[in-house]
Amino acid sequence: MWNLDYTIPTFLILTVILIYYITRPRIKIRMNRTFITLIFVNLATMVSDYIATTMDISHASYSISLLYIANMLFFFFYVLRSYLFYRFTVDALAIHPGICSPVELTGFAVIFVSQLLVLVSPWLHTVFSIDNLGYHSGPAYPMMTVHFLYFVIISILLLLTKGKDLSFFRFTSILAYNMILLLGIFIRLILPHVLLMDLFTLLAIIISFLSFQNPTNYLEERTRFFNQQAFETAVHEMIASHKSYQILGFILKNYTDNRILYGNTQMDSGLNAIAGYLRQNYPKFTYFYLGSGRFILQAPESADLKEVQENLLSRFHRSWNGNNAKLYLQVGFITVNSRQSFDSDEQFLDCLHSTFRQADNITKNNCLVIDEEHKKAREHYLDMKRSVENAIKKSDVLVYLQPIIDASTGKLAGAEALTRLKDPKLGMIMPSEFIPLAEENGSILTMGEQIFRKACEFMVYYGKQISLPWINVNLSPIQCLDHNLPEEFYNIIKEYSLTPDQIRLEITEEENIDHNLLQQQIHSMEEKGFSFILDDYGTGYSNIDRIKKLSFHHIKMDKSIVWEYFKKPDDILPLTVQMFRSLGMSVTAEGVETAEMAEELTKMGCTHLQGYYYAKPMPMEQFYETTISKKGEHYETSLYRDR
Q1: Residues 471 and 599 in one domain
Q2: What's the pLDDT score for residue 643?
Q3: Domain span at 91
Q4: Are the C-beta atoms of residues 588 and 556 closer than 8 Å to each other?
């Protein structure tokens, strides 16, 4: 006889999970649909199992036809349940094997054969038979175990081959519920008269629920919108299945500053008010809040996104009620061209987040569109990012040298080290493109050290041969924040048996740099013998007071103000040069392109000149060859200009 003691408690627990699940917001993705179908089918399996078993125990009270129907219903749901567990694993792994793949075709064949064997049982007695003595297992009954075993084993194999990118928690969760199902299958073989399989499937569903399907894991607390994790899951399915979509996003500009201005409590109330407005006015939309003031609206195909944007913009012209305060917030909009295709969800998300950053910085209320042009720009950005990473990893950062000329003698006074990257795909990449990338990911520290070392190597091997007194090396503001920089650079100088005055450091002062820390760094390095040049004066945020405090002894006038003077002469540049000279500072003019410019800047009081009139930046080897070819002669300007 069969033991039904575990069936009712298992049924009740699963019912509670179902009620909790269906009463919470859920994103419309295949994994969620599979999970809720799995719960319903599992409940149907339990109920039909309980009914069929109860009827089989009292078979004399029922007709044979009714007994066949009850048992066939149970086996139908039992077979379907095993497939749905496999299907859930496929969805959890976010893979799409395709309906014609060998795995799927074999799976369909297993289901078809299993259901066919159940269907013909009343006539051929394949899986089971019923007579006046009751229920009997048929010769094909083991197939009910084989098909379940097949789907569990396939699920585990898929996990091992396709689950390498999963987090450890998710990987072990999928493995755990499949191992529990495997254990349940063997227990069912050992104890066929105890209905324990439903208990093991319940345990598997609980693990799936806690690991993947708990709705609260996908909700953002303040807005009760779906969160970043939910959005990434939805995007993955959207891109993989090539579904059509309508997406409008907006960002609360200067979000971090506003949280400081209004306070966290007020801003959280504002987020809640915005969420309430959206729900009330667009109830059929699906909403995501990605954090940092970024909202995503997934609209029905019939929605007019331009009208929605105009309505939202109009609403943001008015204040939002916070916690006893009025919040005045600016907003920037983005949207995605629905006809735009993406190679992967990672590419889509990268384009989305980069466009959000742009929308946060633009002053106009234009809606930025993620289209093919934007996609190509992001691809170029990522190619450059990879190029920077590879160059730093292989120490392939190129260093070019540009001569700096003594204005009074016209002879070579020194050189500036300028960085270049050469990529097989992108060609030559200029610093204005890759330096911000290196600063963004923190690799500027390693890159800066490599450039510094290469400048030191050149001075060691060639400096004396070409009578080169010094090389200027540029420092990124990010490097200046590194407390270890003075000691590291000093140790490198000693490693190459140089003196600090042979490698001078150029920095550009920026608004967002910690001026107190910068002052400390400069002071620490000056104590070790280094000297500093303020680069790009006239374009940054430097003023006379800060220049004096930071002890600069050398100033480089940016080429933009030099060119502006020669386009429209006035007293600004001459007076600025005279001021720095009166303070005892040397002045280098950048962007010198003609003999007339060189002559005028020299008369103005500039001590050094640099620009294409003398030479463009050139590889170190070429710089050496150009200079050594005139060994023993004066290093006149024509030496570089003629080349």
Answers
A1: yes
A2: 45
A3: 7-217
A4: yes
C-alpha torsion 215→217→222→227, nearest 10:
-100
Q: What is the pLDDT of residue 632?
A: 45
> Which CATH number characterizes residue 462's domain?
3.20.20.450
- Per-residue pLDDT tens for 405-456? 999 998 999 999 999 999 888 888 888 888 888 888 888 999 999 999 999 9
Three-state secondary structure readout of 15-37? HHHHHHHHCCCCCCCHHHHHHHH
182, 217, 252: which is the final residue of a domain? 217
- Residues 511-540: pLDDT tens digits? 556 677 888 888 889 999 999 999 988 876
The predicted model scores a pTM of 0.70
The CB-based long-range contact list for 60-69 (8 Å cut-off, 24+ gap) reads: 64/130, 64/131, 67/130, 67/135, 68/121, 68/122, 68/130
User: Comparing C-alpha atoms, which of 328, 189, 335, 193 is closest to residue 250?
Assistant: 335
State the CATH number of the domain containing residue 171: 1.20.1070
How many Cα atoms are found within 13 Å in the side-chain-facing hemisphere of 373?
Answer: 2
CB atoms near residue 11 (< 10 Å): 17
Q: Match 């410019």 to its residue by tokens.
A: 597
CA 6 to centroid of chain Cα atoms:
47
Q: Is the domain of 553 the same as that of 631? A: yes
What is the distance between the alpha carbons of residues 609 and 406, in angstroms, rounded to a whole number?
7
**Would you tell me the crossing angle of helices 197-208 and 64-92 to the nearest 10 degrees?**
30
Both 476 and 445 in one domain: the answer is yes
pLDDT tens for each residue of 525-582:
999 999 999 998 887 665 666 677 777 889 999 999 999 999 999 999 999 999 999 9
Query: Which residue has 């089989």 as its token pair?
Result: 56
Residues 177 and 268 in one domain: no
Based on the domain organization, do 319 and 196 belong to the same domain? no
Burial of 376 (0-12, 13-18, 19+ CB in 10 A): exposed
CA atoms within 13 A on the CB side of 166: 24
Which of 304, 337, 370 represents a domain boundary (last residue)? 370
**Total of domains in the chain:** 3
Residues 41 and 89 placed together within one structural domain of the fold: yes
HSE toward the beta carbon, residue 323, CA cutoff 13 A: 10
Shared-domain flag, residues 78 and 203: yes
- φ/ψ of 20, rounded to 5, equals -60, -40
User: Which token pair is 356?
Assistant: 């959000």
Rounded CA-CA distance 408/606 in Å is: 9
Clarify whether residues 213 and 245 are in a common domain.
Answer: no
The domain that holds 250 is classified in CATH as 3.30.70.270
